[in-house]
C-alpha cells in the first residue's frame, strides 16, 4: 500500500496539526458535507483514522458526530433524504465510488449501535447471520468455530456457551451489547464503528465493554462516538472534537484533554457546555 | 480457517468467490423487489379490470332509446262521457293509444300474431307514461301530441349493439322482422336517443327499460339518516367516556375488548340480530328504513368509536391540563377544548363508517329490505329498499337490459361513495394538525 | 301523532325549559351572577333535563313494549274458532292481521273476524298513541315545575348536570355490550329451538345438507337434511382460495410499500389500493358472477377441465382481491412496528435489503402477520354477498375448487330471505348456522387481536 496521497484523485493532502506521520491512515475523510433535505448536518470534515487504534469522536448532542460515523460505512444510504459530498477513503479507495458496493463495504466496516439490537433469533443465529449471508463458512464446523471465536473475543463465551439456542433478546443489556459486538466481529471487519455503545448500559456493563474495546484494538481499527469524556479518555488514543457540524480539533487523546488548542474544546471538556 | 477471526483482513471480501456471490445476492435482491412490484401491479390491475368491466357494461345505460310517436289522445278511449272524472281517467286503456299509433306507422302489418310482435316494440310501461301525462294535464285529451315513450328493452339493446344482429334468428331475442321494423322506425326518425331520466326518476320495475333507482336512493338516504342519527351521538359519547372519563377497571376493559371484536363480527350476523330482536321480539315493521338504520348503526358503531378514540387520543394532554388549570370541570374541558380539536378526526371516522353502511347489503336482506319497491318510500316506517340491495336484485335478473342497468347502478353507488370519501379526505387535509 | 312530531315537541319544551331555568336562576340571584353556584346556562340545562329525560325514557319504553302489549290484547280478543288453532297457524293469522292493519296485501281474502281484529289493532294503537302524548306532555310539564321550584343560588346545578351526562355517556358505551349480548341471546335462543328439532350432533357432523322441507303436511317433499359439514368445507375451501390470493399479494405489496417504495409512490399507490377496500361487497359479487365466473369457466374448458359456472375458484379469487388491502394495510402497520434498529443492525453487517427483510424483519413481524392473517380469514368466512351471488346453493362435499360449493353465509341469506314461517327447522337452521359462524369468527378475532397486541407490546 503506497501513500494515500497518490490514490486520492486531485485532492492534495494538507499537512495539519495532529496529522500522523509515518503511519498510513486506515480511513481518511476529506471535506465531508452531509445534508438532510435542506439542513446541513456536517460542514466539511477532514479526519484521518489510524489503523489499529481507537479514535473517539466527542462533542455536544447534535454536533454531527453520529452522522459522520454513519458516513464511514454508508449507513446514511438507507435514509432517503440524506445527501453526502466530499471524499472518504478506506485503504486509499473512495468508498462512495461507483465501483464500491455498500454491502461489501459494510462487511469490512462493521457497526455497533447505541441501543443493543440483537435480532429476535437465538444467540447462535445472531452471530452466524453475517457469516452466513456473506458465505464465510461452507461447513457447519466452520460456522461453529466462527461463532465460538467471536463470542470468545467479545468476552461473552463463558456466559452463554450453554444456551446458544436461546433467544438473544433474553440476555441482559450489557450482554446484549457484547453479543452485538460479537456479531460485528463474526464477519471479520477491518474497522468497527461504535455509536455510543455504552449509553444504554449500567456502569459495570460499561466497564466490561470498555475493557473489550481495549482488547479489540490489537486487531481492529475502532471509531467510537461517545458523550462520556472520561470514556473517551480511557479507551481512545486519538480524539476528535465536533461542534455544530464542524470538526474543531483532533489530536492525541492525552493532548486534547490536557492542552486543547481551541477554546471551544476547552469549554466542552471542562464542562462549561455539552 | 481460524485466521478469519484472529487476523482480520480484506481478503475474504476481495476474492472472486465473494464477487460472484455478491452478484447472486443482488440478483436475489432484484427478484425480491420484482415480486413486490408484481404484487402491487396485480392488485392494481384487478382494480382496473373490475372498474373497467363495470364501466364498459354500464355506461350505455345512462342513455336510452325512446320511441317518438304521434299519439292521438282519443276522447272516446280515455273519457267517453267527458266527465274528466279521475277514476275514469286513470282506468282508461292508454296502452291501446300507443299501439294504435304504432300500427298507423306500419299499415302493412295485419295479422294478429304479427301485430302482437309489433306491439312488443313499445314498453309495457308506455301506457302508464301516457296515463301520467293525461292525469297531469287533462287538456291533452282530444289533441295530437308527439310524445316520447319507452322502447322495450330488447330493442334498446339492439340499437346499442348489445344484441348481435349476426346471430341466427332462432338464438336471438328479436326476430328479423322486428329488426326491419326498428330500422324503419330509425330511418323515419321515430327513435330518439337521449339521457336516461327513467334510471333516476323511476322506482323498481320488472321491465328493464322502466326500472329506476329512485326508490333505492331515497331508501338509502332514509336508512342512512337513521344510522347517522343514532351512530353519531352514541359513538362520540362512548368514545368520550372511554377515552376521557372511564376508570381503568374490569368493566371498561370488557367494553374495550367488546368493541374491538364487534368491529370484526360478520355483517350478516347483525342482520340476524335485527331479524330476531327488532322484527320478531319488538314487532317493528319489516323492510323499514328505521330497522335497517338501527342495524347499520350497531354495525358501524365500533368503527366510529375506534376512530373517535384515536382522534381524542391525538389531542395532547397539555391542552387538558391548561383547561383544568383555569378551573374548567372535566366535562367542560372535553366539550370546550378536546372535542372541537378532535372533531375533524371524528368526522372522518364517521364518514368512513357511513360509506361502509351505504355499501352494506347482507344484513339488510335479513330484515326484508329486499322487497320489490316501485313507489318511493315516504317515511322511516315504509317498506323500502336500498341502493346496494337494488343492485343485488337487478344482478339476479337474466335480461340483458338489467346487466347494463346493474352496472349503471353500481356506478351511481360508487359515485356516492367516492363523494363521501372525497369529503373525508378534504376534511383530513384541511384540519389536519400536527402537535 | 308520528314519532318525529313527538320528539320535536319534546325538544321545543326542553328548549323552553332551558330558557326558563336560566332566567329564573338569574333573577333568584338578584342579577348578581357571582352569587350563583354555577353559570346560569347550567340551571337552564338542569331544567331542560327534567323536562326532556323522563318523557323520553317513557317514550322509549312505550315504543319497545307497544308491539307486544297490543299484540297480546288483539290475540286475546280473537274468537275461539281461531284461538283453538295451533300456535303456528295463530302466528300466520297474526301476520295477516298486521298486514290488514297497515293496509298491505294479505295472503288470503280477509275474513270478517280478521278485519275486526285489524280494526281493533288500529284502535288500540290509536289509544296508545293518544295516551302516550298526554302522559308525555304531563311528565314534561311536571318536570318543568319541579325543576323550576328547586332553582336556588345554592343549587349545585353544574354538578347535577354533569352527573346525568356522565350516566348518559356510560349508557352509550354500554351499547356495544348490549349489542353483543343481543347477538348472543338471539342466536342462542333460536338455535336452541332448532336443536330441539335437529340434534346438534346431526347438524355438526352430518354430511348431507338439503333444508327444503314440506310446508304443508300433504306435500310430497323430502324431510330435509341438516348435516352442515358440506357447508363448513365449502366455506373453508373458498376462504382458503381467498387467502391463497390475498396473503401473498397483500404481504408482498405491504413489504414493497414500507421497505422499497419512495414516499411519492407510496403516497399515490396506497390510497388507490385502499379503493379496493371501499368497494361494496355487492359490487364484487356482481363482478364475480358476471365477469370472473365465466372467465374461469372458459379458461378451464379450454384447458380441458370441467368447471362449474358457480365454481368455488371464481368466488374465492374475487374474495381474495377484496381482502388484499385488508392484509396489506394490517401487515404494513406491523412491518412498520419492527424497530429501525434491527434493520440497521442487519445493514451494518452488510446484508442487502431483501436479506434484511427476509431474515430479520419478517421473522420479527411474524406473530403480528399471523394475527393479521387470522383476522383476514375471519373476514373471508363471514363474507356474504360475493358467495351469495357467485357461489351456488348446491352444498357439495368436495375439495375441488372447480366445483360449485355452498357456504354458511349463503345458506343463512337464502333461508331467511323471502317468506318464512318462524317455527320450521328450515328457518331456524339459519340461526344454528349463524351461531356457528359467530362463534368461529369471534374465536378467530379474539386470538388474532391478542396475538397482535402481544406483538405490539413487545416493540413498544
From TrEMBL, chain A:
Bilayer topology: Peripheral membrane protein
Cell compartments where the protein resides: Cell inner membrane
Superkingdom, natural source: Bacteria
Location (main, coarse): membrane
Domain ABC transporter: 27-269
One GO BP annotation of this record: phosphate ion transmembrane transport
InterPro entries cross-referenced by the UniProt entry: AAA+_ATPase, ABC_transporter-like_ATP-bd, ABC_transporter-like_CS, P-loop_NTPase, PstB-like
Pfam families recorded: ABC_tran (PF00005)
Assigned GO CC terms: plasma membrane
Alphabetical UniProt keywords: ATP-binding, Cell membrane, Membrane, Nucleotide-binding, Phosphate transport, Translocase, Transport
GO molecular function, one term: ATP hydrolysis activity
PANTHER family, per database record: ABC TRANSPORTER I FAMILY MEMBER 17 (PTHR43423:SF1)
Function: Part of the ABC transporter complex PstSACB involved in phosphate import. Responsible for energy coupling to the transport system.
Protein name, UniProt field: Phosphate import ATP-binding protein PstB
Gene source species: Skermanella aerolata
Upper lineage: Bacteria, Pseudomonadati, Pseudomonadota, Alphaproteobacteria, Rhodospirillales
Gene that specifies this protein: pstB_2
UniProtKB/TrEMBL annotation, chain B:
Keyword entries, A-Z: Cell membrane, Membrane, Transmembrane, Transmembrane helix, Transport
The keyword Transmembrane helix belongs to this UniProt entry's keyword annotation: yes
Recorded coiled-coil stretches: none
Entry-linked InterPro entries: DUF3333, MetI-like, MetI-like_sf, Phosphate_PstA
Membrane topology: Multi-pass membrane protein
All copies of domain ABC transmembrane type-1, residue ranges: 217-424
Cross-referenced PROSITE patterns: ABC_TM1
CDD domains: TM_PBP2 (cd06261)
Annotated localization: Cell inner membrane; Cell membrane
Stated family: Belongs to the binding-protein-dependent transport system permease family. CysTW subfamily.
Protein known as: Phosphate transport system permease protein PstA
Native source species: Skermanella aerolata
Amino acid at each position: 500500500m503506497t501513500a494515500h496521497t497518490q490514490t486520492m484523485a486531485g485532492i492534495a493532502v494538507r499537512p495539519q496539526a495532529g496529522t500522523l506521520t509515518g503511519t498510513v491512515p486506515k480511513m481518511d475523510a476529506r471535506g465531508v458535507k452531509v445534508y438532510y433535505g435542506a439542513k446541513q448536518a456536517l460542514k466539511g470534515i477532514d479526519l484521518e483514522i489510524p489503523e489499529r487504534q481507537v479514535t473517539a469522536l466527542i462533542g455536544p448532542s447534535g454536533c454531527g458526530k453520529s452522522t459522520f460515523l454513519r458516513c464511514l460505512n454508508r449507513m446514511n444510504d438507507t435514509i432517503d433524504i440524506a445527501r453526502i459530498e466530499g471524499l472518504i477513503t478506506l485503504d486509499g479507495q473512495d468508498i462512495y465510488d461507483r465501483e464500491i458496493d455498500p454491502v461489501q463495504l459494510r462487511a469490512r466496516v462493521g457497526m455497533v449501535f447505541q441501543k443493543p439490537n440483537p435480532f429476535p433469533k437465538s444467540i447462535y443465529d445472531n452471530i452466524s447471520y453475517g457469516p452466513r449471508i456473506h458465505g464465510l463458512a461452507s461447513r457447519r464446523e466452520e460456522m461453529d468455530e466462527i461463532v465460538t471465536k467471536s463470542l470468545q473475543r467479545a468476552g461473552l463465551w463463558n456466559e452463554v456457551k450453554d444456551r446458544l439456542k436461546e433467544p438473544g433478546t433474553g440476555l441482559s443489556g450489557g450482554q446484549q451489547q457484547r453479543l452485538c459486538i460479537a456479531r460485528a466481529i463474526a464477519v471479520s471487519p477491518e474497522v468497527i464503528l461504535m455509536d455510543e455503545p455504552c449509553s444504554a448500559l449500567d456502569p459495570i456493563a460499561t466497564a466490561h465493554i470498555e475493557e473489550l474495546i481495549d482488547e479489540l484494538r490489537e486487531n481492529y481499527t475502532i471509531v467510537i462516538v461517545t458523550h462520556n469524556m472520561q470514556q473517551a479518555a480511557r479507551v481512545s488514543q486519538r480524539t476528535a472534537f465536533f461542534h455544530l457540524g464542524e470538526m474543531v480539533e483532533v489530536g492525541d487523546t492525552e493532548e486534547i484533554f490536557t492542552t486543547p488548542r481551541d477554546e471551544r474544546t476547552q469549554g466542552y471538556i471542562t464542562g462549561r457546555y455539552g | 480457517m481460524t485466521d478469519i477471526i484472529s487476523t482480520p483482513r480484506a481478503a475474504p471480501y476481495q476474492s472472486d468467490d465473494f464477487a460472484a456471490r455478491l452478484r447472486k445476492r443482488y440478483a436475489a435482491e432484484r427478484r425480491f423487489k420484482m415480486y413486490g412490484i408484481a404484487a402491487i401491479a396485480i392488485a392494481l390491475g384487478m382494480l382496473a379490470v373490475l372498474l373497467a368491466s363495470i364501466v364498459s357494461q354500464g355506461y350505455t345505460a345512462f342513455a336510452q332509446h325512446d320511441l317518438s310517436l304521434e299519439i292521438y289522445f282519443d276522447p272516446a278511449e280515455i273519457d267517453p262521457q267527458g266527465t274528466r272524472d279521475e277514476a275514469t281517467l286513470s282506468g282508461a286503456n292508454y296502452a291501446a293509444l300507443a299501439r294504435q299509433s304504432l300500427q298507423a306507422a306500419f299499415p302493412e302489418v295485419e295479422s294478429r300474431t304479427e301485430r302482437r310482435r309489433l306491439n312488443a316494440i313499445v314498453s309495457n310501461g308506455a301506457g302508464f307514461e301516457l296515463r301520467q301525462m293525461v292525469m297531469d294535464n287533462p287538456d291533452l285529451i282530444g289533441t295530437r301530441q308527439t310524445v316520447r315513450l319507452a322502447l322495450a328493452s330488447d330493442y334498446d339493446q339492439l340499437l346499442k349493439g348489445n344484441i348481435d344482429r349476426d346471430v341466427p334468428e332462432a338464438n336471438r331475442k328479436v326476430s328479423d322482422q322486428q329488426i326491419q321494423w326498428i330500422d324503419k322506425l330509425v330511418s323515419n326518425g321515430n327513435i330518439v336517443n337521449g339521457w336516461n331520466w327513467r334510471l333516476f326518476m323511476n322506482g323498481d320495475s320488472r321491465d328493464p327499460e322502466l326500472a329506476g333507482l329512485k326508490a333505492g336512493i331515497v331508501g338509502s338516504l332514509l336508512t342512512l339518516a337513521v344510522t347517522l342519527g343514532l351512530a353519531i351521538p352514541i359513538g362520540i359519547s362512548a368514545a368520550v367516556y372511554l377515552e376521557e372519563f372511564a376508570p381503568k377497571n374490569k368493566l371498561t376493559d370488557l367494553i374495550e375488548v367488546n368493541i374491538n371484536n364487534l368491529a370484526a363480527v360478520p355483517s350478516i350476523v347483525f342482520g340476524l340480530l335485527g331479524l330476531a330482536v327488532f322484527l320478531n321480539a319488538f314487532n317493528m315493521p319489516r323492510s323499514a328504513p328505521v330497522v335497517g338504520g338501527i342495524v347499520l348503526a350497531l354495525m358501524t358503531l365500533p368503527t366510529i368509536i375506534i376512530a373517535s378514540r384515536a382522534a381524542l387520543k391525538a389531542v395532547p394532554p397539555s391542552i387538558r391540563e391548561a383547561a383544568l388549570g383555569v378551573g374548567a370541570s372535566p366535562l367542560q374541558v372535553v366539550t370546550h377544548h378536546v372535542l372541537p380539536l378532535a372533531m375533524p378526526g371524528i368526522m372522518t371516522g364517521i364518514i368512513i363508517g357511513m360509506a361502509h353502511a351505504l355499501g352494506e347489503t347482507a344484513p339488510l336482506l335479513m330484515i326484508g329490505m329486499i322487497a320489490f319497491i316501485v313507489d318511493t318510500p315516504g317515511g322511516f316506517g315504509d317498506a323500502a329498499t336500498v341502493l346496494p340491495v337494488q343492485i343485488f336484485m337487478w344482478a339476479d335478473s337474466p335480461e340483458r337490459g338489467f346487466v347494463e342497468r346493474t352496472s349503471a347502478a353500481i356506478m351511481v353507488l360508487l359515485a356516492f361513495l367516492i363523494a363521501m370519501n372525497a369529503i373525508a379526505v378534504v376534511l383530513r387535509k384541511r384540519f389536519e394538525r400536527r402537535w | 301523532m308520528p314519532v318525529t312530531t313527538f320528539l320535536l315537541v319534546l325538544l321545543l319544551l326542553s328548549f323552553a325549559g332551558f330558557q326558563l331555568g336560566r332566567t329564573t336562576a338569574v333573577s333568584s340571584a338578584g342579577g348578581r351572577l357571582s352569587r350563583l353556584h354555577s353559570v346560569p346556562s347550567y340551571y337552564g340545562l338542569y331544567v331542560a333535563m327534567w323536562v326532556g329525560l323522563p318523557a323520553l325514557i317513557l317514550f322509549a319504553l312505550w315504543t319497545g313494549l307497544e308491539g307486544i302489549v297490543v299484540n297480546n290484547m288483539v290475540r286475546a280478543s280473537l274468537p275461539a274458532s281461531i284461538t283453538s288453532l295451533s300456535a303456528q297457524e295463530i302466528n300466520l293469522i297474526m301476520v295477516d292481521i298486521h298486514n290488514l292493519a297497515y293496509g298491505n296485501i294479505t295472503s288470503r281474502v280477509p275474513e270478517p273476524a280478521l278485519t275486526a281484529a285489524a280494526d281493533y289493532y288500529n284502535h288500540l294503537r290509536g289509544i296508545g298513541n293518544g295516551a302516550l302524548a298526554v302522559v308525555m306532555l304531563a311528565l314534561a310539564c311536571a318536570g318543568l315545575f319541579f325543576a323550576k321550584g328547586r332553582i336556588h343560588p345554592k343549587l349545585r346545578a353544574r354538578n347535577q348536570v354533569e352527573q346525568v351526562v356522565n350516566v348518559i355517556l356510560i349508557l352509550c358505551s354500554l351499547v356495544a355490550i348490549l349489542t353483543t349480548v343481543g347477538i348472543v341471546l338471539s342466536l342462542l335462543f333460536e338455535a336452541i329451538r332448532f336443536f330441539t328439532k335437529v340434534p346438534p350432533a346431526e347438524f355438526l357432523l352430518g354430511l348431507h345438507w338439503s333444508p327444503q322441507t314440506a310446508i304443508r303436511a300433504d306435500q310430497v317433499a323430502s324431510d330435509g337434511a341438516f348435516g352442515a359439514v358440506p357447508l363448513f368445507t365449502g366455506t373453508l375451501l373458498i376462504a382458503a382460495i381467498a387467502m391463497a390470493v390475498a396473503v401473498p399479494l397483500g404481504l408482498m405489496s405491504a413489504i414493497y410499500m414500507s421497505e422499497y417504495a419512495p414516499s411519492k409512490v407510496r403516497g399515490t399507490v396506497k390510497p388507490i389500493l385502499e379503493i379496493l377496500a371501499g368497494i361494496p361487497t355487492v359490487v364484487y359479487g356482481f363482478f364475480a358472477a358476471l365477469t370472473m365466473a365465466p372467465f374461469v369457466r372458459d379458461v378451464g374448458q379450454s384447458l380441458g377441465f370441467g368447471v362449474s359456472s358457480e365454481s368455488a375458484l371464481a368466488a374465492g379469487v374475487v374474495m381474495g382481491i377484496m381482502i388484499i388491502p385488508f392484509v396489506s394495510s394490517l401487515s404494513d402497520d406491523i412491518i412498520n412496528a419492527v424497530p429501525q434498529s434491527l434493520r440497521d443492525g442487519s445493514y451494518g453487517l452488510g446484508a442487502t435489503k431483501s436479506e434484511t427483510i427476509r431474515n430479520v424483519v419478517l421473522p420479527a413481524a411474524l406473530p403480528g402477520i399471523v394475527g393479521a392473517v387470522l383476522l383476514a380469514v375471519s373476514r373471508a368466512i363471514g363474507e356474504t354477498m360475493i358467495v351469495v351471488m357467485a357461489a351456488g346453493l348446491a352444498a357439495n362435499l368436495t375439495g375441488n375448487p372447480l366445483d360449485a360449493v355452498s357456504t354458511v353465509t349463503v345458506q343463512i341469506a337464502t333461508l331467511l330471505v323471502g317468506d318464512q314461517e318462524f317455527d320450521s327447522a328450515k328457518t331456524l337452521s339459519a340461526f344454528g348456522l349463524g351461531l356457528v359462524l359467530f362463534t368461529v369468527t369471534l374465536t378467530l378475532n379474539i386470538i388474532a387481536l391478542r396475538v397482535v397486541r402481544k406483538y405490539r407490546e413487545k416493540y413498544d
